[in-house]
Prior knowledge:
It is a single chain. The protein is α/β, with parallel strands linked by helices. Helices cover 40% and strands 14% of the residues. The protein is built from ten helices and eight strands. Strands 4-5-6-7-8 form a five-stranded parallel beta sheet. Strands 1-2-3 form a three-stranded parallel beta sheet. β7 (177-180), α8 and β8 (204-206) form a beta-alpha-beta unit. The longest helix has 25 residues, at 104-128. The model has no long low-confidence stretch (mean pLDDT 97).
Amino acid sequence: MIIDTHCHLDDDSFNDDLDFVIKRAKESGINKIIIPGADLKSLEKARKIAYAYEGVYFAPGVHPYDIEGFDYEYLKSFLNDKRCVAIGECGLDYYKIKEHFNSDDEVLANKNLQKKVFLDQINLAKEFKKPLIIHARDANEDIYNILKTHAKELYGVVLHCFNASKLLLSLKDEGFYFGIGGVLTFKNAKNLVNILNEIPLSNLLIETDAPYLAPTPNRGKRNEPAYTKFVASKMAEILNLEVSKIEEITTKNAEKLFKI
């Protein structure tokens, strides 16, 4: 059995065949799925999907690309829901930031707003005693400094789509988890392949980030939870373990972190 700890089932690309996607997932041994929030506008849709299917949960959160119009109280209103298992995805993303803003002042303002919204969600995680699902892209140092500062007060953290950063890897000493998805199967994923052995088995999670980042041999297609089997297989190959052992370890890790 596998738990897909990061799957955007609320994405519009699943609108027409969600029943079949869930059915394929169950047939492939994926017994639980977590839908991470990204945009406030889609949170209600994510919650409805979680209630419509057995074994599906959701995590309210705001992605750094969707911070405009952030509403603290609206996000907070989802956190006592029995199907809510975490907060996120939230974090920092400086990828191509200079292409989207015309001046250094605007870049700095956006970075500061990202940090504020990130800290707001960290504070909610503390208040509601929920784990955090972290998005980190081209912002390793700032992510590290913020999380390191708050680590002792948090109730679990997963670095979603772990980017093979040595700096962020050091957060394993804080008990942080590392979400590994289809990127592990890519030919250009040498850094992640090389660093995988340095992640304690007790800190590993499997995810798809569906509909994005489909693993080989389906790269370029729409990703879906059933494809976690390719991630588990590649992980087992690299770590020289049986696939069943990888499934067992990552499932127990997810159950412990998200209390599901």
